[in-house]
Each structure stands twice: as C-alpha cells, then as structure tokens.
Backbone:
C-alpha cells in the first residue's frame, strides 16, 4: 500500500468513506475510470473515480453547470481529478458526489507518471498546494500497476455484431471528425471483420459513407488495412473530450444499426467510455504490426464456401494485400 495519509488540513476523504457521507460536503481526489458524454442540450455530465482504497467500480460524480464550457473536459480516461466541497447525494438510488458550479470546484491533471503539477483545466477558485503534489505523484505511481475491476458484462468483437442490438466494444480510435451540425464521427477498429450487411436495392445510388463528405485520402491512409472500421455517430456534441485518435477505449452500451447498406453505431443515453488497462492496449499491438504495414507478405486465404467461384493467383515473390492496401497505396496504378 502506498503512503498517502490524509491530513487534517486537507479534509480529503477516501472514496470508500464517501459512500458513508450521505448529505455531507466533502473533498476528494481520484482517478477517472469511466466517463459519459455531455450534449449541447444538457449542461451536466457524470464520471466515476477510484483511489487505492476502493476496489469496486468507483464513485459516480455528477457535474452541473450553467454552460457546457464549465463542465470538466477530460482529455483521457485515467486522468486525475481534485474535487472540493462536493455534496454526497442519492441519484437514482445510487450514492453520488454532486459537483455544482456555484459551490464546488475541481481540477484535472494528466494521469501519466512523471507529468507535471499544472492542471490542464480547473475551476477559478482552485489553487494547488505542496501536499497536493505528493497526492498526485502517489496516484500516478499507483496507476502503473493498478487492475481495474469494471464489473461490466462481456465485450463484443466487430465480427459478431448484430443489427438493432446494444453492445460493449473494446477498440482503438483511428480517427475523429465533426461536421457543421455538431455531429461527431468516431472511427473505431478492433482488428476483426464486420459481417456483410443485407439491404433492399433501390433505384437511387447507395452512399459510400454515412458522413456528409468522404474522408480525404491522406486520412484514409492512416487507417488499418486489415479488419473493418466502424463509424460511431454522436449527435449534438460540444467537445471531443477524451476521444483522440490512437486511444484504446471501452465503449459501453453502443447501439448498432444498418443504414443504406452501411454499418454504424450511435450513442444511447447510457453510453459511457471506460478505462483501458495498459496490458489490454498492448493486446492490439500484434494486430497493428501484423496488418498495418504496407504490402505485408501475409498469406490471406478465402475459406468460405460462398467464395468458391473466386480464382486465386499466387506468385512466390508477390505479397498478399487487402483492397484497402490497394486503394490507399500512393504508387499504385490500376488497369482493367
């Protein structure tokens, strides 16, 4: 157990003690392990925090503000938050810390070991003290070996998705874009192939994408060349908080649908983003190394009986490539 004694002049409570402090105003420090997403129509958001003494799923913290700009804009799951004068209340019969803009304050810090002591976002009233730096350093050190017990149900691979169902997805974010209607498109990948879509053929031409405009070629060239990329559509967003390309995250309660022959997912009111362990992040590395290199000479065979009419041409000096390899390779000429 690391040495993080709570001093009287701070009056910080451990997360486990906050569950016993109903109707009291307290101060907390914790690691963010789960986050929901505020929308333009609702100036509130909820996240979950843990500390070295609480091994459960975490304490919910609900933020209420007059504008979305006053809400915490978390850059990454695993960052650290300081909370001052939050009230412990019941929200939907669950113990929750309520952070009100008018009476509470907070500060957000990078959770990575070795980072500095300047918050990347804080309330106007927040001032860091020397004791805070010790707490912050200890939490960062503890997170290196921490094992998060999320208690959630199983996660579904993209190869097993079904239309009209909710799912939990463990994936990598490969791109994020936003249109002029405050709609955000998150492109995610887990190294597996999505099943084919069934749709009724109509007279009009089917779209090649669900977003208003096709992504430019230089962006497509950054996508993995093996496995499917799923588009997640988020309506009425004001911030792309905690969603950055290259991150490995867990989305809870995504809704899957097929629109004009294309797979997409949308956020539900209960959709959240959850902490991903460093060792889970590493599990994607072999897939990236294996499939993302240009012209990687990996033998890919077609075993489905439905493809029995396809002729395979093999040459010992020719690499096997995917269609995505061909479409995004800068020096390729196609002839017919």
Residues:
């Amino acid at each position: 157990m690391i040495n993080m004694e709570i001093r009287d002049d701070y009056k910080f409570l451990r997360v486990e003690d906050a569950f016993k402090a109903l109707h009291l105003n307290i101060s907390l420090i914790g690691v963010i392990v789960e986050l929901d997403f505020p929308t333009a129509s609702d100036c509130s958001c909820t996240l979950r925090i843990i500390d070295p003494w609480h091994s459960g799923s975490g304490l919910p913290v609900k933020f209420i503000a007059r504008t979305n700009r006053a809400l915490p804009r978390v850059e990454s799951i695993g960052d650290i938050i300081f909370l001052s004068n939050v009230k412990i209340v019941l929200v939907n019969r669950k113990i929750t810390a309520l952070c009100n803009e008018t009476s509470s304050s907070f500060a957000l810090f990078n959770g990575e070991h070795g980072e500095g002591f300047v918050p990347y976002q804080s309330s106007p009233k927040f001032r860091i003290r020397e004791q805070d730096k010790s707490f912050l350093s200890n939490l960062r050190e503890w997170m290196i070996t921490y094992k998060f017990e999320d208690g959630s149900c199983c996660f579904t691979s993209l190869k097993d998705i079904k239309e009209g169902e909710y799912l939990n997805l463990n994936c990598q974010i490969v791109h994020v874009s936003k249109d002029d209607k405050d709609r955000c498109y998150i492109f995610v990948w887990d190294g597996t192939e999505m099943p084919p879509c069934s749709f009724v053929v109509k007279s009009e031409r089917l779209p090649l994408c669900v977003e208003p405009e096709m992504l430019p070629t230089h962006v497509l060239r950054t996508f993995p060349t093996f496995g499917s990329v799923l588009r997640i559509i988020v309506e009425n967003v004001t911030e792309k908080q905690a969603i950055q390309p290259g991150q490995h995250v867990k989305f809870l309660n995504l809704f899957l649908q097929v629109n004009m022959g294309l797979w997409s997912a949308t956020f539900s009111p209960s959709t959240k983003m959850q902490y991903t362990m460093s060792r889970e992040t590493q599990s994607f590395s072999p897939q990236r190394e294996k499939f993302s290199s240009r012209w990687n000479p990996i033998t890919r065979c077609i075993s489905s009986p439905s493809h029995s009419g396809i002729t395979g041409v093999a040459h010992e000096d020719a690499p096997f490539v995917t269609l995505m390899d061909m479409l995004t390779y800068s020096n390729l000429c196609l002839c017919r």
Notes: The first helix runs from residue 15 to 18. Residues 158-291 form a domain with the OB fold (Dihydrolipoamide Acetyltransferase, E2P) fold (CATH 2.40.50.140).
